[in-house]
Amino acid sequence: MPDRALEFDRVSKRYGDIVALDAVSFEVRPGELYGFVGSNGAGKTTAMRIALGVLAADGGEVRYAGSPVTHATRTRIGYMPEERGLYPKMKVLDQLVYLAELHGLAPNEAHRNAEYWIGKLGLTERRRDEVLKLSLGNQQRVQLAAALVHDPAVLVLDEPFSGLDPLAVDVMSQVLRDKASTGVPVVFSSHQLDLVERLCDRVGIIRSGRMVASGSVTELTADAATQLSVRAPRAQPGWAATLPWVRVVSDSGSETVLELESGADDQAVLAAALATGPVTEFSRRRPTLTELFRNVVSDNGAEREGAGA
Ligand SMILES: Nc1ncnc2c1ncn2[C@@H]1O[C@H](COP(=O)(O)OP(=O)(O)OP(=O)(O)O)[C@@H](O)[C@H]1O
Known about the structure:
This is ABC-2 type transport system ATP-binding protein. This protein has helices spanning 44-52, 71-74, 92-102, 107-120, 136-148, 166-181, 193-199, 217-221, 266-274, 289-296, 304-308; strands spanning 6-15, 18-28, 33-38, 59-64, 67-68, 77-80, 154-158, 186-189, 202-207, 210-215, 226-231, 246-251, 256-260, 281-285.
């Protein structure tokens, strides 16, 4: 077990009849960005709240650096809750200093850190404003600053990217990368799978309270069927539909993505594409995280909430 990892070990939680987490295990290694993904109601927030001690698990435990997370170790976790937790009437700088002191920093250190993150997250102009007067995206930057201001050893962030504009996404991504590069385990939940694929070293997919896949995107897609991307500009729609052992994944007109069953002959596919006219691209392709997610979480939409409603 690597040092300073955050480990979820068979963590279970029920709310009455609802099994929110069913023996969920995964590990966020020091220095890695771990993306925690799943449909609405899959159990992400519940798992994160348990790590923070906001909720108690019914079974299993969360460990940091090999020891169960206690009240003392929790103060070393930087947490961004889904419901956000700022004092709306407090000014940005005052709030961050207060939160840093609450985590045990001396006043001058708290001030220094607050100013540092205000600068880093582009909030300098707003530092004397009350939080409620900020746009939602800027409030989210303050929320991230609040998670970082006490120099946490672990970062647990619930949907930190939701509602951010592309520039703020870049800022947030860079901050998380920088933090991970100092050896901190960083886990965040998100529904923006393209972003998770781009940013994360490893990904965990949770479905109905169970971890159904965990690893790098490359590892998770290694067993997937071979896919081909074909660009044949003069081909008519449906040109590939009748090819044997081939499934059409998508056909946007300009690009056709095909999945080959074992035994399918990719050269026969190329010949069929050439029969339609010029072929400008013919390449093997790895499924995206979004495609993988759709396969793993096969019934679309909300989980138990939708199913039980
Ligand atoms: N306080 C609660 N009381 C009862 N059921 C709850 C409570 N909190 C969560 N649940 C249920 O537990 C399950 C897991 O919810 P959770 O919020 O952890 O999912 P999530 O993956 O974070 O979803 P989302 O992506 O929508 O934020 C859901 O079925 C939810 O309805």
